[in-house]
Design a protein that fits this description.
The chain has about 280 residues and is mostly helical. It folds into two domains: about 1-135, no CATH class; about 140-280, no CATH class. It has 14 helices and three strands. The chain has a three-stranded antiparallel sheet with strand order 1-2-3, with helices on one face. A hairpin with a 2-residue loop joins strand 1 (about 170) and strand 2. Helix 5 runs antiparallel to helix 6 (about 95-115) and helix 12 (about 220-240) packs antiparallel against helix 14 (about 250-275). The two termini are about 45 Å apart.
């Protein structure tokens, strides 16, 4: 394909348009279903925002792309072949996530093959956001949610004991004097983890080293679990001091936003700490 372009001097804009048309033709139903999920399913609506961020960062990288000399990268063909195999297997098994994720791999393969691995590296952030915009299948969400509920319940029970609140934990249910607290799926923290991960990826772009980025992103999940457990702990403390009605109504409704704000401040503090101690010099 690349050699045909060189021999006949195809217009690159025209060629890119042809590639885009072929992708849309092959993935028309997949793209339509994905867009419908973003629009019609509340739990998947974040995908539209992430897809927008992908386009935004693609636009921001335009100057860097102009400075790169395009060159063929043969391993890109393997990525293209793998993408097609994933698509076909997903199509045969009627598994939509595989088909949707294969689209991201296919785009990556075409970019790397036609324009080189350095172009792919420059576009890694837009591709990452496009990857994250694809909603995870329900089976994976359920598999992640249950452990998160158990961990959050365990951490919250330990925190309540520190504040001298008698607590008996059975799975994701906490029994305290005067109340029984159940950590349901909506309180598992999976949505806050995902939101903090996205914000963390954006914030990590200010780091100068990959070690700083890795350490920063590595702490996002524990930080999210801690703040979610803190939310449950505060609920238990409110019951202990006689403000059960507040815990049941006002705090239950507002605590999600309040705790997320706390998590953001902790994330900013972690960022400043990593920059201050220059963690890359430790390794």
């Amino acid at each position: 394909m690349y050699f045909i372009m060189k021999k006949y001097k195809f217009n690159p804009i025209l060629f890119n348009a042809i590639i885009l048309i072929l992708i849309v033709f092959l993935y028309y139903d997949v793209i339509l279903d994905l867009f419908n999920d973003w629009i019609k399913k509340e739990q998947d609506s974040y995908g539209l925002v992430l897809a927008g961020l992908s386009v935004y960062f693609l636009f921001k990288k335009r100057k860097s792309l102009q400075e790169i000399e395009n060159e063929i990268w043969l391993p890109g063909i393997l990525i293209i072949i793998l993408s097609i195999l994933i698509f076909l297997s997903g199509h045969l098994m009627i598994e939509y996530y595989s088909q949707e994720i294969s689209l991201v791999f296919l785009i990556s393969g075409i970019i790397s093959y036609l324009y080189g691995k350095y172009t792919l590296k420059v576009l890694s952030l837009p591709i990452l956001f496009l990857f994250l915009s694809i909603p995870l299948p329900a089976i994976i969400i359920n598999d992640i949610t249950l452990p998160l509920k158990l961990v959050a319940s365990s951490v919250a029970a330990s925190m309540l004991e520190i504040f001298a609140v008698p607590v008996f934990r059975e799975g994701n249910i906490l029994q305290i004097p005067g109340a029984v607290l159940e950590v349901v799926s909506a309180c598992s923290g999976i949505h806050s983890i995902f939101a903090l991960l996205i914000i963390g990826i954006l914030m990590s772009q200010e780091f100068n080293s990959y070690i700083q980025k890795f350490v920063f992103l590595m702490f996002i999940i524990p930080l999210s679990i801690f703040t979610n457990a803190l939310r449950i702990t505060i609920t238990g403390l409110l019951y202990k001091i006689g403000y059960g009605n507040i815990a049941l109504h006002f705090y239950h409704e507002a605590s999600g936003l309040l705790i997320f704000i706390v998590a953001l401040f902790l994330l900013l503090g972690l960022k400043k700490l990593i920059c201050y101690i220059k963690i890359e010099n430790i390794f």
